[in-house]
Amino acid sequence: MTIFYVLISIAILVLLIVWAKLNPFLAFLVAAISGGLLLGLPADQVAKSIQKGMGALLGDLVIVIVTGAMLGKLVAESGAAQRIAGFLMKIFGEKYITWAMSFTGLIVGIPLFYNVGFVLLVPLAFTISYQYRLPAVYVGMPLLAALSVTHGFLPPHPSPAALVAQFDANMGLTLFYGFLIAIPTIILAGPVFAPFLKNIKAKPLKTFQSDPKPEHELPGIGNSLFTALLPVFLLIGTTALNLNWEENGSFSPVIKLISDPSTVMLISLLFATFSLGISRKESMTKLMDIYTDATKDIAMILLIVAGAGALKQIFTDTGVSQELADGLKTWDMHPLILAWLITAVIRICVGSATVAGLTTAGIIAPMVDTMGVDPNLLVLSIGAGSLVLSHFNDGGFWMYKEYFNVSVKDTLKSWTLMETLVALAGLVGVLILDLII
């Protein structure tokens, strides 16, 4: 009966988002309250559990997500992303244009949230498409594949960062493993898949073509690349330092402080404020306005993450998670495949990759210790599952359709298939790493 009530709670969440079109944050709260009452949690404890779950999850994430949004916004507004895209085009040339777009999406997509990266880079893809007279979908798909992979696999993006916190994984190792899986996945869903899309007719609307900044207004390529990738350098570098440093050494506390993802993101943002702002004669007032706008962009993401934490806490406090763990032990399925499958089902029903990943985390988190799998790989498995089969209930589906001005049928043949390739390739990559690590 307990499992039945859990399914009802998740069904309430899905129906409120998909059918009633309710905001996901509100849907999470309603589902959490309903689940708590159905599962026998005393009424006066339901609100306390919700508050505890929201606070616990946001406490680990709010600095990472907010500073990440600020950094991404600055990279976009300063022209650093445009500089990186132009630089890669010069290196790869027209013949390998899909590779150039893939690398642009990978590099710029690390500090940028998906929606910001989409709005910023897709118009650049249109410009390149017109310049070289190539099909827009053929040029744009490798870019979108890379943005999607970074969104689902790599911290500091909201879902993988939240999963790292919930599973007590190591953000640096997750990022390192994520890169090992992300690169072949992007190649498959980008340069390998794109040639099959050359016949799809797309007529991008003039509205979605941005005017690039003049060349003399752009920051240098070295500055642009180093600033955009600084969080990656710091996370991987400090993780390696932690692994090779004595646990009780005199500098151990300092290293742990510097290697904390929140500190890494703060250092990166402060550096970017100077390198892309102050050093280029931008006023502090304008820079702070950019950061304020960035927080508006991700306010709802923070609330959705908090709502997912509330539902997770309800499952924990009612003992459901442990009961599910005991039940799932009897399933003859690899834990990483099981996590991927649960996430994929929720993704298909709900549409949101972030909601799917965080909902699965609420179910899986208490089982991590008994599953016998690397929590860093579990993060990536769920991240891959959260991208599968994007369709009518996913905002990304409609953004792609409208920006590229293609039919629904062609959107399914291109966008939906690309997302599914990413999800399947990600799962295969995780399972291969599981055999090696």
SSE layout and pairing:
Elements: H1 2-18, H2 24-38, H3 43-77, H4 80-92, H5 97-109, H6 114-132, H7 136-153, H8 158-167, H9 171-192, H10 221-243, H11 252-259, H12 261-275, H13 284-317, H14 320-328, H15 335-350, H16 353-364, H17 368-371, H18 375-385, H19 395-404, H20 408-436
Helix pairs in contact: 1-2, 2-3, 2-13, 3-8, 3-12, 3-13, 4-5, 4-10, 5-6, 5-7, 5-9, 6-7, 7-9, 7-20, 8-16, 8-18, 9-10, 9-18, 9-20, 10-11, 10-12, 13-16, 15-16, 15-18, 18-20
Family: Belongs to the GntP permease family.
GO cellular component, one term: plasma membrane
GO molecular function: gluconate transmembrane transporter activity
Describe the structure.
With 437 residues, the chain is mostly helical. The chain has one domain (2-436). The protein is 76% helix and 0% strand. It is built from 20 helices and no strands. It has helices spanning 2-18, 24-38, 43-77, 80-92, 97-109, 114-132, 136-153, 158-167, 171-192, 221-243, 252-259, 261-275, 284-317, 320-328, 335-350, 353-364, 368-371, 375-385, 395-404, 408-436. Helix 2 packs parallel to helix 13, helix 5 runs antiparallel to helix 6 (114-132) and helix 8 runs parallel beside helix 16 (353-364). The longest helix has 35 residues, at 43-77. The two termini are 39 Å apart. The mean pLDDT is 85. InterPro entries: Glcn_transporter.
